[in-house]
Amino acid sequence: MNNDHDPISAHSTYTDDDDIDSDVPSTGGLKNEAAERIFHLLQFLMANECTRKDVFEQLAFYYKIDLAAPMEQRHSRRAGRMFERDIKFLEDQGFEIKKIKARGQIARYSLIKGSGPQTAFLFTQAEVDSLALLYNLFADPTQYAQIDPTQPLPQQPTRNPFAEEMVALIDRLVTTLPIEQKKNFTRWVRKPYVYFNITPVTDYLPHRATIDAIVHAISARQQIQFGYTATQRQNPTFHEHIDPYYIIYLEGHFYLIAYSHKVSQFLEYRVDRIQGDTLKMQPDMIDVERRRHPVEFRFWIDSNLTKHSLSQRWLTHTLEREEVDLDEHGRERRRVLVRATAYSEWRIIQQILKYGDKAEIVEPLHLREKMKETVKRMHHFYE
What we know:
This protein is an alpha+beta fold. The chain is built from 10 helices and 12 strands.
């Protein structure tokens, strides 16, 4: 049903001859009796799925139904016309009326929740531009653009599990913009100058149900259990008595941050590796007071890398001191000792590896040993 209509106004047209005052202007309008009837019909449809008979019995006074008359005489053609025109009037104002009629059954009516007259939003041009940028965060960047091999756009993105809902919501919001702002929005969307898209590494749309189930368990504060396929394993491992806390988006993947009672520590579970059909809530409640404790560590890093900013992956970081020494070629080298905190030792190692030979973990010693073993395995690949 069409939602692109203005809210009820003094110029809304209502053409039921039985319900227009003789002094209503030619532009049309509702008289008090019709407005009151439609208002009560709207309330009734909001609260019930009902037949036309239900409406006439509940709103007999407004549809001029004589409940004392024989049943076959109660529902006049006049009342039927009034009802149909009332429904049409509500639809013209943006309300979506759901009509269900099975074969051999009486039609039933209900109001789609959330539908109704749309209110125009007064945005500045900067806000419209921001809305277009937000749209392009989730929309396919090749949707409108013509393919030009000399100026390739980003490839078709894998599906974000929230993209369809976000794009639909923005589309609905854009319909309320004034015509000129709609044109500006469309221009930015069809030919964006900034290609910034939240694109996961893999297709997470099939895992949306898993995300929703986890969120439901978190809100209910209940433990969960599921099968999980780790990177180094081919067959899934069953995990139970898991306290789910939140889901994060990091480096193109969605991760469940949860506490495992079996190993007594926080773990990161990649959502696409959770077997959705095995995910179930357990009766035990999660410990809402438990907090994920950060890992404190120290590392040396080339001073040139600290001039701009250190990794935003660290929760906190402090530059302790700077020193000068000589590299293997006898050249002067400046480096800075950094004390930082992060939640995951695995991610600390991954980030330090990105610095190559420009960084060195100092402590804690067990983390330094983990880094040493990782580097040894890497070295073995090139022997």
